Amino acid sequence: MNILVSGACGQLGQELMLLGRQNGNCLIALDLPEMDITRPQSVSAAINEHKPDLIVNAAAYTDVDGAETEIQQAFRVNCDGPANLAAACADNQIPLIHISTDYVFDGGKKAPYVESDPISPVGIYARSKADGEARVRSLAPCHVILRTSWLYSAFGKNFVKTMLALGEKRRNVTVVADQFGTPTSAQDLAQTILTFASSIRSNGPSPWGTYHYANTGVTSWYEFALEIFKIASSFGLFECPRVTPISTDQYPTPARRPPYSALDCTLIQRKLNIVCPPWQESLQTVIHRIVSHAA
């Protein structure tokens, strides 16, 4: 199966390329400047050249705070880009897997969100991702939308790598303690995407629709940081710094975040027998990879 991955240089894209090749798939890695999803002609040219059987859209504008001022760019990448891919997929009868976010919810539920819960995006980033979902649904009949949360990996910039860098430099760290969700390994998400690809290839029951995927368990950014430092200390990277919990009000940011954005993954587990490992287990795996690579 030829799988075209847009946004292949991002953390999810790199995990997909690594894992997909290990599993014997033919993955086509595209990113800027080879393919610009905000330009329909660039998308069409890539499809004509590579003739994929499936497209995975891992490209996104992910700077939540930056989106508050770079509004046009956020919507170009997170809304217009998926729309261009969806339209081209529909024209060429190619299935599309599109990655979305827990931030389409406003955090008012205080219990894990299911796929049918009404969305209420807060902030430009969240709105752009919600609009991107809507465009994919309206344009591509054969689509899968995967919402995920608090994504991190051994690649790119993310919360885990930021905390590891701070742990090496500081003895005191402050972290927000009143925002709750689920850290998710991009490696686990990549495996889930490849499971969808296998289902599509097998021509079994159609998997089309919207799904939630995250590791299991709910935590805060503060508790997430504590676990990162505990694991890093166990690997001998540094002694655990003192971590002070603070409130969102004490750490103001340009964009509002949902105070609670955990995702219920029952549907994806039931329909595709997908396993969602505990977030602590996956975190240990990723930090071990980071340490091994640095050694």
Identify the notable features of this structure and list them briefly.
alpha/beta; two-stranded parallel sheet; 42% helix; 6-stranded parallel beta sheet; 12 strands; Rossmann fold; single chain; globular; 295 residues
Notes on the protein architecture:
The chain is built from nine helices and twelve strands. The chain has about 300 residues and is of the alpha/beta class. It has one domain: NAD(P)-binding Rossmann-like Domain (Rossmann fold, 3-Layer(aba) Sandwich), CATH 3.40.50. The strands form four sheets. It has a six-stranded parallel β-sheet, with helices on both faces. The protein has a two-stranded parallel sheet with strand order 6-9. α1 packs across α6, α2 runs parallel beside α3 and α3 runs parallel beside α4.
Gist?
With 295 residues, the protein is of the alpha/beta class. 42% of the residues lie in helices and 16% in strands.
Series of H and E elements: EHEHEHEHEEHEEEHEEHEHH
Count, helices: 9
Q: How much β-strand is present in the residues? A: 15-25%
How many structural units, i.e. domains? 1
Per the CATH scheme, the topology name is Rossmann fold
DSSP strand tally:
12
Topology of this protein?
Layout: E1 2-6, H1 11-22, E2 26-30, H2 40-50, E3 54-57, H3 71-92, E4 96-101, H4 124-139, E5 143-148, E6 151-152, H5 159-169, E7 172-176, E8 180-181, E9 184-185, H6 186-201, E10 209-212, E11 219-220, H7 221-234, E12 242-246, H8 266-272, H9 279-294
Parallel strand pairs: 1-2, 1-3, 3-4, 4-5, 5-10, 6-9, 7-12
Antiparallel strand pairs: 8-11
